[in-house]
Amino acid sequence: MKTHLLIGIVFLALLNYTANAQSTTINSKIETKKSENMKQIFIDKFIVPAQSKQEFLERVNRNRNFIRNLNGFIKDEAYERIDEKGNFIFMTIAVWENEAVLKKAKEAVQAEYKKEGFDIAEMFARLKITMDRNIYKESEKP
What is the pTM of this model? Predict the structure, then answer.
């Protein structure tokens, strides 16, 4: 009798584990789908030596004007300050409808660079600009 009870308990535990694993997989798929449809916030922080500021800003303005006309673009903002070393610190924030349009926007920007013969890595190296780039999603409300 004890053996049957033990087998029954193990069986129920296994069923519970399987149900939880399936639930986790389903929830994971829902979360992935949900994040794919959430606004994407593209944030760049540039550290620009003072002598490189003018050329950098010309390029930034060109890029911002280009992305504003792409499908899925919502808005962008820019912020600036001068750090204690005299560097120009510049941040841009671009908001996109979702992950898919952001991906297409990146492709469009790269195609535009290629068409222009523009090499961003060369420019950053020549002007000694460093960049920190990240993509954020809207925080879920509690």
Answer: 0.72
